[in-house]
Amino acid sequence: MGQWTEYDVVTGNPAVMYFYEDIYINSKKTKKQLEKEFKLKYDWNNEVIAIKNNGVFTKVGRYNDYGSLEFITPKTKKIKESIVITNQGFEPAEGIMINKITAEYIKKHKLFKTCAKKVNFFTAIKKLMNKDISLKKHLKMGPIEKYIGAQDVNVTNKKEFSNNYATLTEGIDAWTLVNPKLKTADGKKNHKRIVQLVDTLMEKICIENKISHSKPTPSSRKTSCTKRNPPPPCKKGYEERKNKKGDSCCYKSKTKQEKPIKPGSKTKKGCDLIIAQNVLNKFADGKLYYYRSKKKVLKTKEALKIAISMIDNNC
Fold first, then answer.
1. Structural domain boundaries of the chain?
2. Residue 7 above 90 pLDDT?
3. Residue among 99, 92, 15, 9 at smallest CA distance from 57
4. Quick one: which of 246, 197, 254, 239 has its CA closest to 224?
5. Helix extents (H) in 67-160
6. What letter would DSSP give residue 243?
7. What's the burial of 251, exposed, middle or buried (CB within 10 Å: 0-12/13-18/19+)?
8. Residue 188 and residue 149: Cα distance in Å, rounded?
9. Nearest residue to 38 via CA among 24, 22, 58
10. For 33-55, b where at least 16 C-beta lie within 10 A, e where not — what string?
11. How many CA atoms does the CB half-sphere of 110 hold within 13 Å?
12. pLDDT at 213
């Protein structure tokens, strides 16, 4: 059976990308410079992991061109483990292949911890895929999705090669192959694409498996608040303030609280009416003077102002 390319089932990115000098050429740069530029932008596609059929995410491996991921021991350079990840081979799949960066984005997602406790990710993704080789029917992968299943995918920096089979052109649709951790325009664009794909995937997995979003649990750290200054919510007459240890506790409010008027208190009922009547009677008799002055109040408007002021001070 011949060689073939496998694809990240979530993003559609190929597991193998090689530098081809014939299609990635620029007379102003040397071959070494072009290879370095190519590696920086596109070599991340070759770093893949498997989600095993027990739901475990493996470490980084390499696709062997024949439907399996191989995990090599660093010292001996020998194959430690091989996992079948294809549906195109003769053996049943032992895992699902995704990119290392896709796996990182999944693990950082807000729903991952909740789902990982209740869901086998291999089973959940397989269920969504049904019999397809990717999730492109459920996720909008961008320009790369039309190449999924091709024998080989590559990139060119020359528009004259843009019509070649499975060759994406820089400046047009090759941005889906660019490392999403680069701070370039294409890198940022691809980062946004993968974040959206992972977000949609996690939402679908939660919905399919009827998992509700977890609420944040309160901190188990002991508070330094006391019985005298308890933690919030605060009672009337208390306000929330931080203590020396940085905890929010309830302290007696510094602002004076207005005392409610109790029935039978010293305040006479209708004192405002009595004061107003006395002031206006004096004004009518021409005996109303300004405070500490021999000057008479001549205008009704001024008399009313004096009445209101006396009511505020005495009632």
1. 31-208, 271-314
2. yes
3. 99
4. 246
5. 100-108, 112-118, 121-129
6. -
7. middle
8. 26
9. 24
10. ebeeebeebbebbbebbbbbbee
11. 10
12. 58
Rounded-to-integer distance, Cα 81 and Cα 72, Å: 7
How far CA 75 is from CA of 47, 59, 91, in Å, comes to 19, 16, 30
Nearest alpha carbon to residue 190 among 101, 97, 62 = 101
Q: 33-37, 92-96, 296-300, 310-314: which range is least confident on average?
A: 310-314
The larger pLDDT score, comparing residue 189 to residue 3, is at 189
**For residue 281, what is the enclosing H or E element?**
helix 271-284
For residue 14, the cross-strand partners are 7
Could you give the CA distance from residue 300 to residue 286 in angstroms, rounded to a whole number?
11
Per-residue confidence (pLDDT) for residue 1, from 0 to 100: 47
Q: What angle do CA 199, 194, 87 make, to 5 degrees?
A: 90
> 65 and 3 in contact (C-beta within 8 Å)?
yes
Q: What span, in angstroms and rounded, lies between the C-alpha atoms of 249 and 274?
A: 47
C-beta of residue 306 within 8 angstroms of C-beta of residue 288: yes
Please state, in angstroms and rounded to a whole number, the distance separating the CA atoms of residues 241 and 253. Answer: 10
3-state secondary structure of 41: helix
What is the three-class DSSP state of 79?
strand
CB 243 within 8 A of CB 225: yes
Residues 14-70 pLDDT 10s: 999 988 888 887 768 888 898 999 999 999 999 999 999 999 999 999 999 989 999
Residue found under tokens 């990119």: 99
- Picking from 65-74, 106-115, 161-170, which range would have the lowest pLDDT averaged per residue? 161-170
Q: What is the DSSP letter of 148?
A: T
Q: Which two tokens stand for residue 2?
A: 């011949």
Question: Are the C-beta atoms of 137 and 125 separated by less than 8 Å?
Answer: no
